[in-house]
Write a structure and sequence with these properties.
nine-stranded mixed beta sheet; alpha/beta; 9 strands; homodimer; 10 helices
Chain lengths: 281, 281
């Protein structure tokens, strides 16, 4: 683990850290925000932020305006990259933004040429938490959130590991990737054509299976002016599934907001308050 | 005037606008934030933000986290570009970041090849206010702020037009450009070798001339870990001059903070509150 960069913000510290990933077989970088309380030695809870297509660890750090609230509430924020990186890591042969680099979709790829490096599910669920616990003292309470592709990742990872994550939230998530162009392209490449293997990475399918006795708190924020709302994100598929499995989702679709970090910055405080409320109860 | 982009943020609207500049002889772009109150028809005060070296209108909009507070306080934010742009606009022949494109230094150039386009002082002081008043209803009260090169611009423009600007603030400003490498390079290119012509663009020199009966409120924020503090920014030269001219400056140098937008984001709320306080008194 190398600290490449460290900058003071809202009394806390934002670090960019690189490490050799055993799971992804490449060098990875993540950002971590340590609130003033953590720097002073208090063990704090952790919130993961999973970013969307094309992002690195930097977009959220620079644009979401999250550190004011995270500093106030004493939340550690862990911000991973969105795919494996570096020489030898395959990319979309057509160079599109929605497959390959910056588009790992938080799955464990089973198909060549992706399967060696594209193991983002295990990276988020296993390798990063181990690194975190070894190097950054925390109180063991963890929530997960994300945006778009990262909102998909947060929902899938949170629901499949509901004993570990206290709460889940998402901005503009891809709610039913099996049934949208982004998801179908990614899953057919990474997982192959057998759609049974896609289900474990589909928030709507997972919600249909969810035991109604395990009510993990979920909050979803959408912008009604989001150009991807109907074709790619499909939040109503997930809400229908939640209705059927008798699971409550806090859902708001805001008039006029789009898919951008300006939308995220407007409601990030509310999401961090949501997680803080559950993490400290 | 063309609205190229419009996005909802914190209940307000951020627009990117292009227009043909008579003063700069090129097409220019600026960003403007309209708080919810302005959208609802209230005439609001205006705060200009002048950006630093290499920036366009986008850096502040994306990274400063200013819109939450501006929305709450009902402040219009006007965010110009930092130089003329486009084909035929000369750039530093060596391609460095500190001269030419992105480095207009808020002066009216008198030397070839700069003098045709590099008239950023007049652009900020004359052309933009006219455009603003024609197209965006406001209550006529105006303050000015900026960062680094833009902090220099805010101080110089504010002090030379103290009857027009209600208050001035700056993050990490270049306080004495006649006496630092960035300023000397820019001024000798744009204004020539006669240093008498530099004085009107030097905040420290202007402060020495300032009438102590005209106390324009000034706030300056610095980071003690700013790598440019001693060689380029020289805030103590300005503070000394203010002391001699019996002018009060609110000055804070914060332990551990650097020159970045993370620093700005931490204290932007305090600066907007500062301006709001003076604009509404």
């Amino acid at each position: 683990m190398n600290i490449e960069n460290s900058v003071k913000v809202f009394g806390g510290e934002l670090r960019q850290v690189t490490h050799d990933s055993d799971v992804l077989h490449c060098t990875m970088r993540f950002s971590i925000f340590l609130p003033p309380a953590a720097l002073a030695g208090t063990t704090c809870p952790v919130v993961y932020w999973l970013s969307g297509l094309t992002c690195t660890d930097e977009n959220f750090a620079q644009k979401a305006g999250a550190f004011r609230t995270a500093a106030e509430l004493g939340l550690i924020l862990l911000i991973p990259d969105t795919s494996p990186r570096g020489e030898g890591v395959p990319d979309d042969p057509e160079g599109n933004y929605d497959l390959g680099l910056g588009a790992g979709f938080y799955v464990n790829a089973t198909q060549a040429p992706w399967d060696k490096h594209y193991q983002m599910y295990d990276y988020i669920v296993q390798e990063l938490p181990q690194l975190l616990n070894e190097h950054y003292p925390n109180n063991g309470k963890v929530s997960i959130m994300g945006h778009s592709m990262g909102g998909h990742g947060a929902l899938v990872i949170g629901m499949r590991n509901a004993q570990r994550y206290t709460s889940i939230s998402a901005f503009s998530p891809i709610c039913h990737p099996m049934d949208c162009p982004w998801g179908q392209k990614a899953f057919s490449n990474y997982l192959g054509d057998n759609q049974d293997s896609w289900q474990q990475y589909d928030a709507t399918w997972l919600m249909q299976q969810l035991d109604n006795k395990r009510q993990i708190p979920i909050r979803i924020e959408m912008g009604q002016a989001d150009p991807f709302f109907q074709e790619q994100l499909k939040p109503y598929a997930l809400l229908n599934a939640a209705d059927e499995s008798e699971h409550n989702i806090e859902f708001v679709a805001h008039e006029g907001y789009d898919h951008s970090y300006y939308f995220i910055s407007t409601f990030i405080e509310a999401h961090l308050q949501f997680h803080h409320c559950h993490l400290t109860n």
